[in-house]
Amino acid sequence: MHDGSGRILVQGLSKNFGPINAVQNLHFAVEPGVVTGFLGPNGSGKTTTLRMILGLIEPSAGTATIGGLPFAQLPNPATVVGAVLDSQGFHPGRTARNHLRSYAAAMNVPDQQADQVLELVGLGSAATRRAAGFSLGMRQRLALATALLGDPQVLVLDEPSNGLDPEGIAWLRGFLKSFAATGRTVLVSSHLLREMEHTVDHVVIVSRGQCVYNGNLEHLRSAQRSRVLVQAADPNTLVTALQQSGLAVEHLPDGRLAVLDSDSRTVADLALQAGVALYGMQDERVDLEQLFFQLTHGQYTGGAPHAGSAWAGGPAQWGPQSAGFAPSPYQQVGYQQPEYQQPGYQPPPGGPPQQDHQQRGGSGGFGGGF
Ligand SMILES: Nc1ncnc2c1ncn2[C@@H]1O[C@H](COP(=O)(O)OP(=O)(O)OP(=O)(O)O)[C@@H](O)[C@H]1O
Ligand SMILES: [Mg+2]
After folding, report:
1. Ligand 1 proximity of 300 Cβ (cutoff 6 Å)
2. In what residue span(s) does the ABC transporter domain sit (predicted)?
3. Of 189, 185, 227, 229, nearest to 9 (Cα)?
4. What is the CATH number of the domain that holds 262?
5. pTM here?
6. Among the listed ranges 163-177, 217-231, 286-300, which one has the minimum average pLDDT value?
7. What pLDDT shows up at residue 107?
8. What domain count does the chain have?
9. Is the beta carbon of 279 within 6 A of some atom in ligand 1?
10. Which of 139, 125, 159 is nearest to 38 (CA)?
């Protein structure tokens, strides 16, 4: 029964491996009914966290529960949680079907369920082939089939798109969304936000074992605003014209104007009407992957993330490791190096440079993202 009871709750979770603080004081909830992305660069503590949620390693501190219980106390765990942490553990001599049947027997699940999940993951025609000959993508699918055998309430997948071709990624995206849409819980990790952007509703982003963002992906997008940078012959006249049209404008240190939440065409039309010559314009657009990199920046650079950046004053869910402004999350369309990449640039008080994901270029990632 998928009654929405498969909520994952992580509270104060930490894990040290000797001197390595792999996971530090994580707090987040994974709600049924939506796909939650667990994102972070290599070594940021994703797998360690998932292993603690699944009761495979003991936390140094804190708790993780599924439906209110630690994994070890779940009455019939395989029917509650299906998990894929790696796709290597198959008996090489076994066929896909026999692999699944051996698991089905251990889980007290009927044999025919093996064929059903094989069909579900697109391996129906490979049922009698030995897993030893499977490609990485096929092993990913077989691992997913294994996780689905018990018709679980909760799915926990560690980097499931590794090795999948674009079609497989698109299939996985649709599968996870429809799985969640039945009121079940999906927690899926990746080191690529772009790869997940069309799949996940909610994201938990970690860097160096700490949470740097926990919230809705749309909110992450809408927290940014687009800007048009304009070099005008008569900035003051243009500012008046823009403000009279209801646009917010900022003066930049280099003499240019930054017009918020607009586009170059609108600004050019208003400049023409005001009789102001323009010497150049530049649309600023945010690339989600760059934004992710910015949030997790510093993991391997040796330095601590920039404390006290404009991000720190942002929404409450921005974590303590929110990074500074380099590298910028923006993609530029224009002719000049933007000023926030130049020495001495001060970000606007309302937050970092703005974005417009509607206009964002280069989105979609591999195969359109899964
Ligand atoms: N068993 C272990 N013993 C010692 N250190 C470990 C162990 N497992 C993980 N670590 C360390 O903990 C940190 C987090 O590792 P983890 O595997 O959780 O990262 P990850 O986010 O899953 O990375 P990736 O994207 O590469 O899979 C790393 O520094 C890693 O070296
Ligand atoms: Mg990992």
Report:
1. no
2. 8-233
3. 185
4. 3.30.70
5. 0.73
6. 286-300
7. 87
8. 2
9. no
10. 159
